[in-house]
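[step 3/7] inverse_fold.run input=structure_tokens len=283
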């Protein structure tokens, strides 16, 4: 490679991966190399700017831990996470949206109709709906993996005062595909703003706010798993989500209910608010 030049280096790097056994890996690395090199040429990237980019990645690694992934956050605020979700959304299925950096395995099981609000501050509400397939038929024994931020805008990983199982659960639907639980309405919050991603947003004149939302991973035998979010249509940040996760089809309206029997069943005050959302899975 002693004769590598600015004109030939891209192909030299691409050919260095010719021995890769996995053709998909080889294709992805080849295209990534082409686009990275094309970017450097297009903007006439200087050594100082390259160093600033490397420093950003170094700082992202330093600040990441089990409770925070600055690399996912970088992907989020640049819209890459959302683009991948949009490309992966199946025809006829509920649209995908961000996983985010605060999902945790091992959430406790909660029976259908169970209570997640417990002693949390905030407005209590009923969340319910069904899991159906692309034809609208109920999906029996579907699993919902749910998590949300508290009324202070923080997930349990960010707030030592919260129990590690606070405001998260797994739920298995019955044969009718129905799910229901009580919780509190989450608040809008800012994505972590104290690291390199915060510097990126400030440099771009952007805010760090996300509209209030619920997270779900919905899965069932014979269906494609769905990772998505559900948003409140009246949230002030619904049209300026810092990570571009909002979809028109994922908006819900809160309804004020005076159904005394329903309130008694779920131990809710009258009147109470509820939201309904049906998840559609593709097979």
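[step 3/7] decode complete -> sequence:
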């Amino acid at each position: 490679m002693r004769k590598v030049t600015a004109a030939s280096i891209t192909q030299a790097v691409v050919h260095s991966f010719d021995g890769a056994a996995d053709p998909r890996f080889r294709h992805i690395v080849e295209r990534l190399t082409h686009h990275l090199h094309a970017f450097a040429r297009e903007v006439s990237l200087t050594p100082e700017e390259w160093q600033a980019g490397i420093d950003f990645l170094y700082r992202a690694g330093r600040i990441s831990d089990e409770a925070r992934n600055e690399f996912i956050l970088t992907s989020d605020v640049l819209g890459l996470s959302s683009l991948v979700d949009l490309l992966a959304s199946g025809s006829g299925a509920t649209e995908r949206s961000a996983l985010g950096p605060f999902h945790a395995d091992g959430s406790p099981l909660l029976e259908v109709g169970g209570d997640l609000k417990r002693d949390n501050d905030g407005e209590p509400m009923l969340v319910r709906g069904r899991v159906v397939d692309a034809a609208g038929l109920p999906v029996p024994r579907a699993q919902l993996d749910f998590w949300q931020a508290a009324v202070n805008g923080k997930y349990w990983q960010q707030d030592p005062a919260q129990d590690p199982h606070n405001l998260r659960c797994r739920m298995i639907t019955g044969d009718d595909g129905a799910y229901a639980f009580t919780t509190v309405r989450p608040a809008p919050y800012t994505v972590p703003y104290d690291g390199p991603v915060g510097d990126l947003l400030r440099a771009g004149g952007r805010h760090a706010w996300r509209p209030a939302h619920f997270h779900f991973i919905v899965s069932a035998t014979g269906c494609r798993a769905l990772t998505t979010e559900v948003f409140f249509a009246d949230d002030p940040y619904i049209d300026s989500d810092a990570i571009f996760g909002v979809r028109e089809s994922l908006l819900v309206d809160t309804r004020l209910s005076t159904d005394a029997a329903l309130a008694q069943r779920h131990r809710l005050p009258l009147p109470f608010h509820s939201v309904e959302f049906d998840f559609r899975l593709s097979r």
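[step 4/7] annotate
Residues 23-43 form the longest helix (21 residues).
Residues 105 and 145 are 9 Å apart (CA to CA).
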